Amino acid sequence: MRSAIPILMAALVPLLVASVSPAGADTTDPNNPGTTQGTVTKADFTLVYYRLEGDKAIEINGTTLETFFNRTRCQCNEKMRIRVKLAASGRQKLANARNYPLKLLSGTSAACLCDSPSACASATCKQLGNPIDATNLLNSDADFDFSVRDIFEGSTPGDNACDRDESRSIFIWMDTDDGDDYTNVTDANFQVRIDGRGPPPPTGLTVTGGNEALEVKWDQIGQNNDLQGYQVLCSRGGDGAPFPKVFTPGYDVISCPGQTQTSGALSTPIAEAGEPLQAVAARPSMRGAPPAALASLNRDYLCSDILTSGTSTRIFRLQNDIPYVVGVISIDKTRNPSALTEVVLQYPTPTRDFYSGYRGDGGAAAGGFCNMSGSSAPGRAAWAALALAVLGMAARRRGARR
What we know:
Elements: H1 4-20, E1 45-53, E2 56-60, H2 62-66, H3 71-75, E3 79-86, H4 88-93, E4 101-107, H5 109-112, H6 117-121, E5 126-127, E6 132-133, E7 142-147, H7 148-153, E8 165-174, E9 189-195, E10 206-210, E11 213-217, E12 227-236, H8 277-281, E13 286-288, H9 292-295, E14 312-315, E15 324-332, E16 343-346, H10 354-360, H11 377-401
Antiparallel strand pairs: 1-2, 1-3, 3-7, 4-5, 4-6, 4-8, 8-9, 10-11, 11-14, 12-15, 13-16, 15-16
């Protein structure tokens, strides 16, 4: 019996210690950050992207995320958020861990995945938001707020950071030991596409005058899988007045909060400041660099919705013998517009074309500025109806003459 006492005491000691320790107390050495039960990998994390507008967080996903990172959002330092979620598998792996620094980084693997304090101190990798204690993810999601430009800058910040078109890596970086050496979650690498480069501008622009209308044509851009379509901008020459009809821009206008877009009179090189409209209208068709009001791509000067097929359109409801300045831009799928490099000054001229002849003979079908050329079925049906109406009137007149 005497030999069994030490064994009994050894069994009772842990129970006695537990009985005097507060319930739920951390009895682990606070200087020891704990251990992970398995390697935390990319599969343990989910990233959710948000666009911030004031106090609103609007989720970005699917196609919207694929086209989100464009030049305008970069130049305007638009604010965004990434929410990091830890799956149940990850929470199990971190259950015994404490004080694990976690960062969200943008850049290249060579710059971001440093493996020593000295290497990380000199790493050219953009930190997104503020670091957190990874164990916070055991109880809730973690939000990282930063600007779109931070994503574009990545490992190579600079004045031209917004002029990039490439894949960008977003890394989840963790220090999973005592802090003297660094261990990275090397495969927690999430890819996004940044595109700050607009497509090339259209060439071969021609503008032909018609009765209260202008016919606008341009050349198709070469093979470009990123092309979304084209839009026409125009204005009256001289006074620079935009048209009252509002069109929806297919591009994000580079006009940041607190800034206003250029507007006002269209002066040189198309029309001299203060020059009478009659003098300008007497000139032949001219082409040149766009005035500032159009070059800024101010949406007030849009004269068409986005044209996703074809390379021509017709602008109606214009005033004869008044000059108009017309230009065309191309737009990519990330809503980046091309530059407006050239405009043509042209003016409508009185002619008796099919439409005006039809109206002059009593036709009542509506037409106007918002009617653009295209190959849509409704457009073909409208013109077919118009032709039939004219033919019907002609037949009635022939019958009356008889």
